[in-house]
Amino acid sequence: xxxxxxxxxxxxxxxxxxxxxxxxxxxxxxxxxxxxxxxxxxxxxxxxxxxxxxxxxxxxxxxxxxxxxxxxxxxxxxxxxxxxxxxxxxxxxxxxxxxxxxxxxxxxxxxxxxxxxxx
Length: 119
Known about the structure:
The protein has helices at 30-46, 61-72, and strands at 2-4, 10-12, 15-23, 50-56, 80-86, 89-92, 98-101. By secondary structure, it is an alpha/beta fold. The longest helix is centred in the N-terminal third of the chain and has 17 residues, at 30-46.
């Protein structure tokens, strides 16, 4: 597997791994996101990627996701290409930082527990 490092130099990978993430219970659009995630996983497996899927729970989402990412990043080495894919809603906050949303928030409906995960 060939790729390019951050300095633009060609890199040869011996392994490729992907972590495909979506919400466990993310509202009406969630099944669409999971279907897209599963199709992407099938495509990556066809190219010999090791694929793992993860559903972010609504209870303690930040802590659970952080632990999953920490575990996944233990596979990081110069010969391994790591891919993290998020299928779900998101936005940028006032500081232009990524915020993952469990639901699309509207002015009339805000879930009882704030679903924002990454800041």
